[in-house]
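yo

u said u wanted the structure for the complex thing, so here. seqs first:
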Amino acid sequence: MKALHLEKIHPGLSIDCVVFGLHGDTLKVLILKLKKIDKWALPGGFVAATEAVDTEAARMLKDRTGLDHLFLQQFHLFGAVDRNKVSDIRNFVDQQIISAAEGEVLAQRFVTISYYAVVDYAKVQAPTPDYSSEFCEWCPLKELPSLIHDHREIIAKAYQVLKRDLNYQPIGYNLLPDKFTMPELQAVYETILEKKIDRRNFRRKMLSFDILIATDEVRTGGSHKAPILYKFDEQKYQAAMVGGLVSLW
Amino acid sequence: MKALHLEKIHPGLSIDCVVFGLHGDTLKVLILKLKKIDKWALPGGFVAATEAVDTEAARMLKDRTGLDHLFLQQFHLFGAVDRNKVSDIRNFVDQQIISAAEGEVLAQRFVTISYYAVVDYAKVQAPTPDYSSEFCEWCPLKELPSLIHDHREIIAKAYQVLKRDLNYQPIGYNLLPDKFTMPELQAVYETILEKKIDRRNFRRKMLSFDILIATDEVRTGGSHKAPILYKFDEQKYQAAMVGGLVSLW
DNA sequence: ACAAAAGTGTTCCTTTTACACCCATGC
DNA sequence: GCATGGGTGTAAAAGGAACACTTTTGT
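structre next:
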């Protein structure tokens, strides 16, 4: 159980991560159940004085999910004056999750820089809680429990940005295993965008981007024709991420 | 001349603003010439402990440009460990622009949250320098002088985001006077995207978004047919900003 | 009258949309 | 063999690209 080392952190700045995963046709986010308190929180933490902010975000994700090199996007700094609620901090101290001295520090004003990540649900075996939480859970985006501070707002913004980015960049990559079928990829889009897409048109358009490679394997098991397994063309995928898939002019 | 009040600011956090303006067919950014030092800086400052970050960014823009209610978008937190160069700070102290005690504080690690703004060049009469700078100037994006810290990198990122956003949202609004002609609007796109667009196709597509209202006025003066003046339809413009102009599905 | 540049229209071609049809797999 | 869902094809409509023509303004 790691403790806090508040003297070594960058002052007044925290990181919060919204980790998206797809469970069947449900979009879920990773949240932590706090100890002794009936509230939840986003995975996050503080920035070591000696580390880059982006590096620290990646570290936190690794600590919680075990995953490295994932799709991690900084998306917004939340900087309202009273965004970290003093009542929440006091609760922490009362429940002896943090010391009075630590509570003192955390009750000061904090701004938080938020990142979102999209991960392959299946690759995250057992998400690991941190010092302040008893367990970690995937929660459907539409069924969020009571969250501390402005974490609900952060998730809402993350989802909005995710939807926008999905229309611009082939994010599906990161939510799926290395090899996946066209219907699986389509499900990613339909779930996130909350919209039905014509099967055949989706297929054609997706293939036209020329970022997928058909393998000679198929996914058997369903009582129907076995769908072809695809993988992303790393090179072309990266290029598409830079330029974007659609543009006005 | 306002002084620094470092005891009242949020620690380790600064704001930097990239203000874009269009001068003819040149995209320019607003930069400040530092006193006694042969370097330039972005307009920016520190966050009062009692103010929201977004509010502070707007205040800085108002202080420098006199403009209120402008298009101001937070776009990235720069959080590398050594991004604020100690040598630059020392220079400040040596030149007595700031006190030794202030220099002490500023030499600590700072992360900066960046905003970009797009403004009507003509509306900014005389940009006002701050306590650290002797004057303020519009500089062509392609001819940037030596800038402190990572400000060059910040401008580069801002430009990249601006180009992306332009393809998504009708930003042109903010770079132009209330009433403008179709060729003027087209020039905004061509200048920012560095790309020629067919006059007639641009017109048709832009009108198809149904966010422009033709006035019954024209702009005279050119030795050619007087172009119609348009204005944005506030309502529909706002809606388009939310949904975006293009989408994959 | 002429140059310059704006407004309008047209043609061709590509993409999108909305389908019908066939194919493989498991029960 | 049949239900299920995947792969392929196609006709009609919409949208995009390229270009000709007309109109207005200042000199």
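Residues 151-166 of chain A form the longest helix (16 residues). Residues 181-183, 199-200, 203, 222-228 of chain A lie near DNA strand D (CB under 10 Å from a C1').
cya
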